[in-house]
Structure formats: C-alpha cells, structure tokens
C-alpha cells in the first residue's frame, strides 16, 4: 500500500519557522516529481513548491520565494519543506504529492499528481 504521511505542522507565531516532512512508503519515489500543496478554508488547493526527481529543479509559488525551501532525500524516500518567516496568510492544510512516473517538467497541474498525503495543519498567528 502506497502512503505519503506528512508531519511537522503546528501553530507558530508570525515570523517563525516550521519544517514539514513527507515520508513515503509502499514504493520508491526516486524518479517522481514531488510537490507541496496547501488549501486554506474556502479556497482551492494551490501548488506551493515542487522538486524534480533529482532535486536539480525546483518551483516555488511567488509568494513563498525566498522563505520556503523544498528538498528531498531519495535514500530516505522523504520530502521536506522548510518554511521560514511565516505569515498568517500561510495558514492552511499542507499536502505532499508525488507523480507515478518520471516527468520532464517540474511545474505540473494538480491532476498530474497520483499520490497524496492526508495533510498537516499549519496555523500562523499574527
């Protein structure tokens, strides 16, 4: 059974930091594009960051550039999102996702991701 399990969410004050992790099991994702998405109440799910299978290419939503860093450890089958200088508008449920096959581009629509985690809540207080 393929599973993606997020952890590391929580409540933090504005300006603080959190590090999200996404542990994958059931298959290797070393050739998959992986990404972080978020969904705030009443809003659509949006892509926050994505990373190629090798880690050599990344994508960031404009509003998180310079504050968030996506990384991966293929040996551990784990994806990370380091979030610094958090703002109240970053409050959302954060999901990790992975594609089933190798992708030639990093910027992919939500529908291109085949596996999803259950999400972890991130709340940033002002």
Write up this protein.
Helix content is 0%, strand content 47%. Strands 2, 4, 5, 6, 9, 10 and 11 form a seven-stranded mixed β-sheet that branches. The protein is mostly beta strands.
List the helices and strands and how they pair.
Elements lengths: L2 E5 L2 E4 L4 E8 L8 E6 L6 E6 L6 E3 L7 E6 L4 E6 L8 E7 L16 E2 L3 E6 L1
Parallel strand pairs: 2-11
Antiparallel strand pairs: 1-3, 3-8, 4-5, 4-9, 5-6, 7-8, 9-10, 9-11
Please bin the fraction of helical residues: under 10%
Q: How many distinct helices? A: 0
Strand content: over 45%
The best one-word shape is globular
Radius of gyration: 13 Å
Sum this structure up briefly.
The chain has 126 residues and is mostly beta strands.
Short key terms for the protein model shown above:
126 residues, mainly beta, seven-stranded mixed beta sheet, four-stranded antiparallel beta sheet
